[in-house]
Amino acid sequence: MNRDISTPDGMPRKGSGTGRQDADRSRNSAPTQVKRDYRSGSDERGRQELEVFTPAEAAELLKVPESWLRKRASARRVPCTFIGKHLRFSSSDLEQIIREGHRDPVTGPSRARRTT
C-alpha cells in the first residue's frame, strides 16, 4: 500500500509501504508469455486443445483442391472459422466435413438377369 511520507523539508512524498514494488522494478522481470500449441488432443489438465489450418493446409489434409474448399466455405456449405477476416479450419471443422461427406453404400435387390 502507498502512504504519504513527508521529506525533511515538509513536502509530502509517496512511498511504498512494503518495498515490494521497488523490488519488482529492480528485477526488471517482464511477464513471460506461455506459447500455446494448437494441436488436437488433450493437454496436461485434460482439456481439449485446438489446431487451426489455413485453407491450403486443410485442402492438403482433405486431399481436395484448395479452390473447392474455398468455394464451399464462402457459400457456407462446409464448416469454417473466421479469425478476423482470415479463413481458417479447425480440426473439428475438418472432422465435420469428413463426417458430412460420408455416404453409405447403396444396397438393394440384386439385378440378376431374368430369363424368360
- Helix and strand composition category: alpha+beta
What is the distance, rounded to the nearest whole angstrom, between the alpha carbons of the first and last residues? Answer: 103 Å
Cα Rg: 31 Å
Strand content: 15-25%
Mean pLDDT: 75
Describe this structure in words.
The chain has helices at residues 20-27, 55-62, 66-74, 91-101; strands at residues 2-6, 12-16, 41-42, 48-49, 52-53, 81-83, 86-90. The protein is an alpha+beta fold and 116 residues long. The protein has a domain at 41-86. The strands form three sheets. Strands 5-7-6 form a three-stranded antiparallel beta sheet. Strand 3 and strand 4 form a beta hairpin. Helix 2 crosses helix 3 (66-74). The longest helix is centred in the C-terminal third of the chain and has 11 residues, at 91-101. The N and C termini lie far apart (103 Å). The model has no long low-confidence stretch (mean pLDDT 75).
How is this fold's topology laid out?
Layout (H helix, E strand, L loop, with lengths): L1 E5 L5 E5 L3 H8 L13 E2 L5 E2 L2 E2 L1 H8 L3 H9 L6 E3 L2 E5 H11 L15
Antiparallel strand pairs: 1-2, 3-4, 5-7, 6-7
Helix pairs in contact: 2-3
Protein traits:
116 residues, alpha+beta, three-stranded antiparallel β-sheet, two-stranded antiparallel sheet, 4 helices, elongated
Question: Summed up, what is this model?
Answer:
By secondary structure, this protein is of the alpha+beta class. Helices cover 31% and strands 21% of the residues.
